[in-house]
Amino acid sequence: HFYLYEKVNIIHLHFIAQLQEAFAAGLLKPGMNVLVDKPKKLVNNVEGLKQCLADFRKDLPWVERLDLTNLPAANIISQAEEKASAPAAGELDADDDFQREMFFYRQAQATILEAMPLLNRHSIATKRPEDYFAEMAKSDQHMQKIRKKLISKQMIMERSEKAKKLREQRKFGKKVQIEVIQKRQQEKKAMMSAVKKYQKGMTDKLEFLEGDQKMNKESSQGSKKAVNKKGPSAKRKYKDQKFGFGGKKSGKKWNTKESYNDVSGFRAKIAHGKGGKKGKGGKQNKRPGKSVRKKMKNRS
Amino acid sequence: LCLCFIVVEKGSPSSKNQKCKGKERGPPGKWTNKERVLIFSSRGINFRTRHLMQDLRTMMPHAKADTKMDRKDKLFVINEVCEIKNCNKCLYFEAKKKQDLYMWISNSPHGPSAKFLVQNIHTLAELKLTGNCLKGSRPLLSFDPKFDKEPHYALLKELFIQTFSTPRYHPKSQPFVDHVFTFTIADNRIWFRNYQIIEEDGSLVEIGPRFVLNLMKIFQGSFGGPTLYENPDFRSPNMHRREMRLAAAAKVREKQMVKEMQKGKKTSAKEDLESDVTADVFLTPAEEKPADIQTEAPEPKVVKKKQKAFKRQRMQMARR
């Protein structure tokens, strides 16, 4: 005991002496000896682990343990989309929540699919019969709460969907309304221009009226019979022609080719003065002719 | 959203031992696999841990509860507690700093034990976990193939199987298998999930609880003994928090340094520019003008004003 201590002491002294020598020789400089962390050695006693496992394991029949080791079942969705199923081959990304949970889900699924035949062989049931009443892990009250929450979530979603649809409809409805108004305006315009054309005599077709009626008929199933079948009556037409439509008389009193060539109103006797004077013998002071009047005017 | 999966079970929570028509509730076989798990915790746990423990006791009919243990006692006292309760497995939850939760799982008298850091705890009571199962029904256990690849994982797998699987014909168990525990390894952690089996073709709903175990050490003995394995990827939560704080501090310090440097640049003595020799090249001095000094004041200017007659007068004159 004492000897060991002495030995250690001697070695220590020896070491110090060496340092002193080195210092004297100027070999020691500041910063030469850097403090280095000894790399942490982590225990991984593989042999020990295996030994422990061998000692510890209980070789129970499968029925007692009900354990299975398997990879997750094939991901149908990703197969359908032909996505490269990365987790199947390589590392599962623990940060991608959805992927990770799907991985666990599929692992459980694969276990079930494998275990079903085994359980059936050992006649262990997975479905309890309808009349089997037993306590559940979560109380009925709790399940009601869960149900209510799910329903409320669905309601909220539905409501938001409806609101969205309504908004869309309103936009669409507005569009339709604008279109209808524009269409009506266009029709009115066309109608008015057709009517004006008829008034001016550019067209003597009255189809624009009929066109309107035809559409009305189509729309109102002919409930309204056409009262004015051929437009205004002949008398009306004559009067319109004679007296006009209240101010639009331009060109009505001019000669057209037909009216010029129309000599039906020609009375030769009257035209050549042979018809004789009328009963009274004409006027007492007959108005002189134009040339005579002119002369008179010039004279005066 | 799977609303259809909510089946309000025809369970009657009050009557536990209700016998149905002529069926024997007690299973016919003999209970041979005598596994009992002691689940308890230290003092200073929070509500989530407490609920997790309760949930585990619900899920495992072969589990027993015990009072909270004082953390001052050494861990091997737990072995004695287990012996008193006649349990051969133990799940001990230890809470430190009211923040971190550690879980010990051990085979009581001589067997191996492991210590984990537990994270991401979700209990049965969460409304998003919508599944349900019979209380005391036996679970299927599902393991990742990675458990078979490493010796330490293999040991853990055996430990989990023995702890979590309900023995057949246990008096408190139900003879049906309607839920499945999954243990998966991802990101060097063990993820635990519990699913309810709805259809035999594999449609599942999660029941809960769920948690993540981060392995720290495996010991050869129960709550002690030589270390068999240490997880190299494990970082203690304290170190983690410290690192975060240091990172934040480093950022602040860097910003300050940059600010100081900028300040220094502004206030440092500026160099005087030397006179530029080439600046005089383009100077052309103007010609000198003779200086004209006026000694007398200039004469005032005489302004002749035209005397114009008034308009009326002008008109009159014009008329004449």
UniProtKB/TrEMBL annotation, chain A:
UniProt GO cellular component terms: nuclear periphery; nucleolus; preribosome, large subunit precursor
Primary site of residence: nucleus
Keyword annotations from UniProtKB, A to Z: Coiled coil, Nucleus, Ribosome biogenesis
BP-aspect Gene Ontology terms: ribosomal large subunit biogenesis; rRNA processing
Biased composition (Basic residues): 226-239, 269-300
Subcellular location: Nucleus, Nucleolus
InterPro entries the UniProt entry points to: Ebp2 (IPR008610)
A Pfam family matched in the record: Ebp2
Keyword Metal-binding tagged: no
Chain segments carrying region Disordered: 213-300
Claim: Nucleus is one of the keywords in the record: yes
Function, as annotated: Required for the processing of the 27S pre-rRNA.
Protein family according to the UniProt entry: Belongs to the EBP2 family.
Protein name, as recorded: EBNA1 binding protein 2
Organism: Oreochromis niloticus (Nile tilapia)
UniProtKB/TrEMBL annotation, chain B:
Lineage, broadest ranks: Eukaryota, Metazoa, Chordata, Craniata, Vertebrata
Coiled coil, from the record: none
Molecular function terms from GO: rRNA binding
Keywords: Nucleus, Ribosome biogenesis
The organism of origin for this protein: Oreochromis niloticus (Nile tilapia)
Occurrences of domain Brix (ranges): 35-224
Gene3D superfamilies on file: Probable brix-domain ribosomal biogenesis protein
Family: Belongs to the BRX1 family.
Source superkingdom: Eukaryota
Matching Pfam families: Brix (PF04427)
GO biological process: ribosomal large subunit assembly; rRNA processing
SMART domains listed in its UniProt record: Brix
Protein name: Ribosome biogenesis protein BRX1 homolog
